[in-house]
Write a structure and sequence with these properties.
The protein has helices spanning about 15-25, 45-55, 65-75, 100-105, 180-185, 195-205, 230-250, 250-275, 280-295, 300-310, 325-330; strands at about 1-10, 35-40, 60, 80-85, 90-95, 110-120, 135, 145, 150, 150-155, 165, 175, 210-220. Helix 7 packs antiparallel against helix 8 (about 250-275). It has 11 helices and 13 strands. It is an alpha/beta fold. The protein starts with a strand and ends in a 15-residue tail after the last helix.
């Protein structure tokens, strides 16, 4: 069995594979590392590209597009390794990127997952929006990172180069202990995409495990935030899945109050979209809230199981402040300016 399996989930990304897979193959060359591409039912030349241009890479063919969450779940059961890296197809890795991650996890059995420092592939001196140097969520479920608050992304000047326990590690480059991944049930396939890695890390925290960022490992990520503007489908999944994640993971004494506040905040978000003329995103917010209410009954058993497995000491499940208040009212633009954060 290999020590590490690097699994890249692909859907119609032949161009991305040709551009970024060479760095993964070159910089992950080890007898203890296997590089895999799990193809999510692509209709382009992705599979041919892997087979002809990257013969050392294992190709896992999935029959259809299962989305990010279920795609990875189905791929991971087909690899044998102590650790698995969920790596986006638009990530450029650097020489020795796996070594600090492996060394940390080997020395810290209490850690379930970690991530490298994610920098922007297009602005290489800046953090990448989706993961930066590790993530957290505020008291109302809004995600943010060391290096990114809402749309404000910091330049990397070494300010977050210390290893730090975080609330969640980015799904763009998620290094996870396979045993724990299976223990908590993997990614929630019902999410399809977006917020699923935060939900996964939260469930790991509930069972007493730690999540960290190891910035001595560096990768560069293109990321959706640097491409075209948010579309209604992405808006819908982010709002719906965020509510589902809160319902699954928040303790009973906080759930009702947080969901009441979110009703108001989501309404304000919809109003902003309306005033900007973004009717698709406006409708996506209300559709997300409607579908959350309809889907909530099927998550009751999940919520019960999660709450039963909570380790009593791990009660600081969110940062105690409102990110909206800190950034939009207090005008704070850098992670270091926020009140002290707490692990999830």
């Amino acid at each position: 069995m290999k020590k590490v399996a690097v699994v890249i989930l692909n859907w119609n990304g032949a161009t991305m594979l040709q551009r970024f897979l060479p760095s993964v193959v070159r910089c992950s060359d080890s007898r203890n590392v296997e590089v895999c591409v799990a193809d999510n039912g692509s209709t382009d030349a992705s599979c041919r590209v892997v087979e002809t241009e990257f013969p050392t890479v294992q190709l896992i063919r999935l029959p259809q597009n299962y989305g990010f969450a279920e795609g990875y779940n189905r791929a991971i059961v087909q690899v044998e390794a102590e650790y698995v890296v969920l790596l986006n197809s638009d990530v450029e890795v650097t020489e020795g990127w796996l070594d600090p991650l492996i060394e940390y996890m080997e020395a810290h059995p209490e850690a379930a997952a970690c991530q490298p420092k994610l920098l922007s592939e297009r602005q290489r001196d800046s953090f990448e929006y989706a993961g930066a140097a590790g993530g957290f969520i505020d008291r109302y479920g809004y995600p943010f990172c060391r290096g990114r608050l809402f749309e404000q992304v910091e330049k990397d000047m070494g300010q977050y180069d210390t290893v730090m326990s975080v609330g969640w590690a980015s799904g763009a480059a998620l290094f996870v202990r396979r045993r724990v991944y299976e223990e908590v049930g993997g990614l929630d396939a019902r999410f399809f995409a977006h917020m699923e890695e935060i939900d996964l890390c939260w469930r790991m925290h509930h069972r007493g495990y730690d999540i960290v960022c190891v910035p001595q490992s560096v990768v560069y990520h293109v990321g959706g935030a640097t491409l075209k503007k948010e579309n209604p489908r992405k808006t819908y999944l982010n709002f719906r899945n965020n509510l589902l994640m809160l319902y699954k993971n928040l303790p009973s004494e906080r759930l009702s109050s947080v969901l009441r506040v979110r009703t108001v905040l989501d309404g304000l978000a919809a109003l902003v979209f309306l005033l900007k003329g973004e009717m698709g995103n406006f409708r996506a917010v209300w559709q997300a809230r409607r579908d959350f209410r309809q889907m909530r009954p099927e998550f009751v058993s999940d919520r019960t199981d999660i709450q039963q497995h909570r380790v009593p000491e791990k009660l600081a499940e969110c940062c105690p402040f409102s990110l909206l208040w800190q950034c939009k009212v207090m005008r704070k633009k850098r992670f270091a300016e926020l009140p002290p954060v707490a692990k999830m």
